[in-house]
Structures are given as C-alpha cells and as structure tokens.
Amino acid sequence: MEPLELYRDRQHACLMFTDLVEEDGQAVQANQFLIVDGDTGAIIDPGGTLAYNELFMGMTRHFPPQKLSYLIASHADPDIIAALDRWLTSTSAQLVISRVWERFVPHFTKAGKTEGRIIAVPDGGGHLPLGRHELVVLPAHFMHSEGNFHFYDPVSRILFTGDLGVSMTSGAEARVPVTELKDHIPRMEGFHRRYMVSNKILRLWTRMARQLDVAMIVPQHGAPLMGRAIGQLYDWLDGLACGVDLFDERAYQVPTAHIDPVTRQMRPALKAVNG
Ligand SMILES: [Fe+2]
Ligand SMILES: [Fe+2]
C-alpha cells in the first residue's frame, strides 16, 4: 500500500507507512514516518530489519535516500532503531536520539559506524532545523523509555508520540484516524498500563502537550488521533494508573511456577481459572 499522506503543501509533507511489517501475528504492527521539507528529509522511528527494505524502497519513491538528513528515534527499542546499521550504510543521515542511548546504539552497528553520526539530545530536548523549518524535540522520558522524545512539527501541527497513544491494530486499521476516543480505549489500555511508567509522568506530559497547537497525534503503533480524541487522550492519561503505580510486593515474589520449554507455557496453569 502507498503511505498515508498525513500532510502536504508545496514545500512540506508528512507520510506514514503502516503496513511494511508482515502481519503474521509475531511482530507488532508499527508505523514509520517520512517528513520532507523542500529538499531535506527525515525519517522518524525507522524500525527494525523487518521494515528496512520496504521502507527504503517506499521512501525512494518520495524522496532520494542519499539526501536524507536525519534518522530520528523516539527511543532505542528494536521496533524503532534495530536496522540502524543498514540505514547508516545506505544513507548519510545522522541519528537523532536521546543522550541516554548515545553509547548503547553503537551495539546495533558494526564497529565505528556511528562515529560522527549521532546527535545526542540532552533531556531538555530542543529545536532541530529541518529544511526551512524545524522539528521540536520534546521531552517524553519514561513514556515509556528512560530516554524518550516526541517530535512536534509546527508546519503540519502533528505531534509524533512514539509509544504514547498507541493502539493494537492492523496496518489497514492504522490508516483510519480516530476522532472519538471512547471506543478506541480497549485497544490502548493494556499497553499503556504496562508500558507507561507512572501516572505522575503522564500528567507532567499532558501539561506540556496542552500548550501546543496539535492537529493530530500520531503514534508509532496503530491509528492517529484527531479532533476531540486529542483532548480526550490527555484527559484519559491524566486519570490512568500505570507502570509502577500498579506494582506492589505481590509482583516481586520468588516464583513458584515453572516455564515449560516444550509448550512454551507456564506450569501450573493459573489456579484461579482451573479451580
Ligand atoms: Fe518502545
Ligand atoms: Fe514501539
């Protein structure tokens, strides 16, 4: 499928790829983004080896890879940046990533590959030039990664939120923006409860995000959020208990269950279910 055009004017375009990873149920659906401003381009959250070939070829139809300025990574997870070695080989782009991950990402590549190629952003974030405009690199630490950024594009007014606001969908469903959050929450809730670190962090973030003029929130998994769904997301996050909020001493017991490598299941099965 062609990428979804989130925004386009004469100078500036934001494209979203939703179906580059084969949907065999093993790898979570993931979105990758190409932002073009004049003759400058950046990819946000390029992904792992599953997405590399398709994204590189898909991008070539819209922008010459040799002119790519940045690979921008919200954090350092496998679905974000595992194909870093191949991207650094096939383009001359610089990697923009949290300073927290600067000395860890070279483990994704052959020796020496990252030398002079990493822009390590300090915790406070900043404004990154892109063509005649800029991207705002916004602090999003612990949502979910320790060193985590979101990216605001003032031209399209899109806020790219990495793993925040994600939903578990197919690539086709991810192309349909959500305008009302209520029926969408069941696809978001489990992920946010486990992968977001704490309600305190969510509330600090919504306080910052509410200051921005946001037309669309676009996560790295699942569908973009638009219209009323944006404010509804902020409100939902403000009241969401997650991560360490939900962990107490029950989560840290010396285990009694056994891992069966044949069935790849735990033994015994849950007592509560079998009586
Ligand atoms: Fe992640
Ligand atoms: Fe992710």
State the gist of this model.
This is Metallo-beta-lactamase superfamily protein. The chain has 7 helices and 15 strands.
Q: What does this entry look like structurally?
A:
The protein has 275 residues and is of the alpha/beta class. The chain has a single domain, classed as 4-Layer Sandwich (Metallo-beta-lactamase, Chain A), CATH 3.60.15. It is 20% helix and 24% strand. It has helices at residues 49-60, 78-81, 84-90, 189-195, 199-209, 228-238, 271-274; strands at 4-8, 12-17, 32-37, 40-44, 68-72, 94-98, 118-121, 126-130, 133-139, 149-153, 158-160, 216-218, 225-226, 258-260, 265-267. The strands form three sheets. Strands 1-2-3-4-5-6-7 form a seven-stranded mixed β-sheet, with helices on one face. It has a six-stranded mixed β-sheet with strand order 8-9-10-11-12-13, covered by helices on one side. The longest helix is centred in the N-terminal third of the chain and has 12 residues, at 49-60. It binds fe (ii) ion (FE2) (2 copies). Residues 29-221 form the Metallo-beta-lactamase domain. This is Metallo-beta-lactamase superfamily protein. It comes from Oryzisolibacter propanilivorax.
